[in-house]
Structures are given as structure tokens and as C-alpha cells.
Amino acid sequence: MSLRPALPPASLVSRAATPIAFIEAIVAAYRRYGADPAGALALAGINPGLLAQPDARVTADQMEIMSGAAMQELDDEALGWFSRRLPWGSYGMLCRASITSPNLEVALKRWCRHHRLLTDDITLRLSTDRLTAGLDITLHRDLAGLKEFCCVTLLRYVLGYACWAIDSRIPLQESRFPYPAPSHAEAYPLMFAGPVRFEAEQAGIRFDARYLELPIRRDENALQSMLQRALPLTVLQYRRDRLLVASVRRFLRDPANLGATAERVAEHLHVSIRTLHRQLREEGSSLQQIKDETRHDQAIELLDRSRKSIKQVAALSGFGNEKSFSRAFRQWTGFSPQAWRERNRVA
């Protein structure tokens, strides 16, 4: 093992974007154990003078090297957060306990359950309803100055593992943290894409519950390789979203969104326009194709199941006028909307 602390996306790995506050938290772990961080700082190429500069930043590579060295040197993968050490390999054990799960929901529940064997200082809990899944952290002791680093890192641990296990990006609907916005709050969207809220009751993330149904796509051999250098494999590589097409369809299914621009769809999904088009193309689809399919399905349902006029059906299906709707409908089915309705009523 080991999983590494939170870092920015791949595009920012070579640029200094990770807050120096996270390095300070690792240095605090050294102080707790009466050890000298100088070796780890030197290995990571971090000038100790940066610790006195609140606005300083380091690169993701430096953060990974520093945290990895500290975890091994201090033999504590929790880096001083908890009342007892989490020996080297602890989080690897959680990965192994979850890898044989049939789907992500079972894997995350196992992760949370086994995490309680490591420490009583916090509780991880997976909750779900029909639409939304949530992973929450409940703190059972005062972590003082380490609260932020603990919450951020643990959520990134689990999110990174989940993405790796199902081989898919998991877009976040919200990330919450139980402390005021820090001075480096601008770094949070880099670590948790989507809405970020501070001063919440507890730390947690929210995402579409459909991801819980996706099967685990990794085996023990893949896990062994991943644990050799977990951060790049669990956090930085995931560009593909296996539910992106379904998410776009669901958004466009609302009549108010049928005419949504690419900008609006991308904003709703918390991705860039370029990423939206690229990922849809990789899935063999396009935004226009999904719009057409959604309009087609909406029109068919309204014609078959309602008494709305053709003009109303056209508007509710995202068309500006009845003429353009009729032309598109004839291309889809070979019938005019009125002929389709009459044909089905006769049938």
C-alpha cells in the first residue's frame, strides 16, 4: 500500500496547486511522534521555508512523495489523525476486503464496516435513497488542527478507490465539510469537482445512486499493481464516466431542458464542454443524438398517452414550431404526428 492524500486532477500534477497547509499537517504528525520531517521534506523537494508562507503551494508529485515517506517512516497511514497508529498497509487491507464485492454498493459498505476495526475516532457511513448516495464522516473526537486534512484525505481515499474499482469517474453532486472555508478554499473544486459547502454538520460527499449498481471491474492482480502507487491510479486517470450518456438523457428528459445548450448540460454535470463532447464521442454518442432520441421518445409518449394538440406536443418535445416537429417526426417514423396518433388509436 499506500493510498495517498488528496491531490488535484491530472492536469494540475506538474503545477503547484496543493495547499501548503496539507504539508504542515504532515509535519505536525512528525512532531506528534517526536520525529524529524527534514528527510521527507528534502525527498519531496520542499523548502522548509514554505511552511511559514500560508499562501504557498506545492505540486501533487511533491505531496505524494512527502505523504508516502511520512506514512512509512512514522508507520501511520493516518498521519497522526487518530488516537492510535494505522500501520503501513491498513488501507490496503480495506481495499482487499472490498475487491471481491459484486458491485460498488457492497464494496463501499464493506469499506465502511472494516474501517471501524481500524479506529473508533471516526465513523464512515454509506447512505442511499432512490436517487442519491452519500458517504459521510462522523467525528467522535476533536481532531483539532488535523480535522481538515483528515476529512479531505479520507473522502479522497474512498472516492479514488471507488472510481478505480468500477473504472469510472463518479461526478459529485455536493461535497460538505464541518469547518469554515479555509484560506485555500479555491483549491477545493480541484479536489472535489462540483458544489462545495463549508460549515456543514459533518463531512461527506453526494453522488448519483446509480453508480452503486455498477459492478466491480478489478481483481486481486489489478489491486496488487494499483497499491504499488495508488494515487495516480485511483484519482488522476479517470476521465471516463460510465453513466454519462444516461445522465445526459435524464437531464434532457425534463421538457424545460430539451433545448439546453452544450454549455448548460456541461454545467449541470460539472464537466467542461470539451470533456462532455469527448466522453460522449468515446461512448459512441453525441449531444445532438441524445437530444434527438429524447425528443423522439417524448413525442411518442405524448402522442400515445395524452390528448394534447400536435402544437403542444411539439413544444413539449423541444421544437420551436409545429412544422419543424412534423418534419423531424416523419424522418423518425415515416408518419406525420397526426397519422401516427390515428394509426395507434385504430390499433
Give a verbal description of the structure.
The protein folds into two domains: 227 residues, no CATH class; 103 residues, Arc Repressor Mutant, subunit A. It is 50% helix and 9% strand. It is built from 16 helices and seven strands. Helix 2 packs antiparallel against helix 3, helix 5 packs antiparallel against helix 6 and helix 13 packs antiparallel against helix 14.
- Computed over alpha carbons, the radius of gyration is 24 Å
What is the residue-averaged pLDDT?
Answer: 87
Q: Helix fraction?
A: 40-55%
Distance between the amino and carboxyl termini: 64 Å
Task: Summarize the helix and strand pattern as letters.
Answer: EHHEHHHEEHEHEEHHHHHHHHH
Structural class per helix/strand content? Answer: alpha+beta
Strand content: 5-15%
The count of DSSP E runs of length 2 or more, i.e. the number of strands, is 7
Keywords for this entry:
alpha+beta, 2 domains, Arc Repressor Mutant, subunit A, disordered N terminus, 5-stranded mixed sheet, 50% helix, two-stranded antiparallel ribbon
Summarize, please.
The chain is of the alpha+beta class and 347 residues long.
Write the layout of secondary structure elements.
Elements: E1 18-19, H1 20-32, H2 38-44, E2 57-58, H3 60-74, H4 90-98, H5 104-118, E3 122-128, E4 132-139, H6 147-166, E5 172-176, H7 188-191, E6 196-197, E7 203-208, H8 220-226, H9 230-236, H10 244-252, H11 262-269, H12 273-282, H13 287-305, H14 310-316, H15 322-333, H16 337-346
Helix pairs in contact: 1-3, 2-3, 4-5, 5-6, 6-9, 10-13, 11-12, 13-14, 14-15
